[in-house]
Amino acid sequence: MSIRNWPVAERPREKLLEQGAAALSDAELLAIFLRTGVVGRSAVDLARHLLNEFGSLRSLLEADLSRFSSHLGLGPAKFAQLQAVLEMGRRHLAERIKRDSALESPQAVRDYLKAQLRHEPHEVFGCLFLDAKHRVLAFEALFRGTVDGASVYPRQVVKRALAHNAAALILTHNHPSGVAEPSQADRQLTERLKEALALVDVRVLDHFIVGDGEPLSMAESGWM
User: Fold this and answer.
1) What SS3 state is found at 101?
2) pLDDT of residue 4
3) In the chain, where the domains are located
4) Which residues of the chain fall short of a pLDDT of 50?
5) In 3D, which of 53, 56, 89 has the Cα closest to residue 71?
6) What is the pLDDT of residue 168?
7) 65 SS3 class
8) What is the DSSP string of 133-170?
């Protein structure tokens, strides 16, 4: 049955306008993005099929062009549209954290770091550079490694902090395994960077590790 024949309250678009996006299932949200189905399948049926094929909404969103386009109802045009939507989301989050002190908006910082790093297949280490009032100056992904780890050089972190005239910063890196527990190497690296940056009067406020769930704060966990 076509979605047009569904009761109005059950149609994804109308449901979103009435109840908000959070009320929709993954399949309903994806159906709105798809807009149309294929022969024999409504947009919602197609969305459910695709979620089953990919295994999860996250897996679909993070698929590369080749894998994405190999599925029924998808192609380069939809891929380009999806990438534009994801980038708009990242830029929206970037604007949110630049309005206020990073310490006063911890959830906004977490959301931003998730958007920047969670989809990365390899380990990436970055810094959120802050001014004296802890407002965000910039974010940079400084080192990229393999799934086994990244080589991080304190001298380069200090150099970029000085280039931004930062007074403080937040360290971050992802764990492609999905487990956000800090390793002994993560703790040692954090201490090395704190010591190096202290020499130029730049404070390290936190080190977030991005995994599958919410980013873990080493400061909140008592490891800093």
Assistant:
1) strand
2) 64
3) 3-62, 101-217
4) 1
5) 53
6) 97
7) helix
8) T-BEEEEEEEEE-BTTB----HHHHHHHHHHTT-SEEE
C-alpha of 121 from chain center: 12
pLDDT in tens, 167-211: 999 999 999 888 888 988 899 999 999 999 999 999 999 999 999
Place of tokens 């190497």: 185
- Beta bridge partners, 149, equal 146
In the block, residue with structure tokens 């080192």: 143
Contacts of residue 141, defined as CB under 8 A and 6 or more positions apart, other chains included, come to 116, 117, 124, 125, 126
CA nearest 129: which of 88, 191, 99, 171? 171
Q: How many residues does the chain have?
A: 224
Query: What was the pLDDT predicted at 190?
Result: 94
Q: Which helix (H) or strand (E) holds 203?
A: strand 203-210
CATH classification code of 101-217: 3.40.140.10
Residue type at 186 in one-letter notation: D
Residue matched to tokens 């979103």: 16
Secondary structure element (H or E) that encloses residue 53, with its range: helix 43-54
Q: Measure the CA–CA gap between 27 and 17, rounded to whole angstroms.
A: 16
For 8, left (φ over 0), alpha (ψ -120 to 50), or beta? alpha
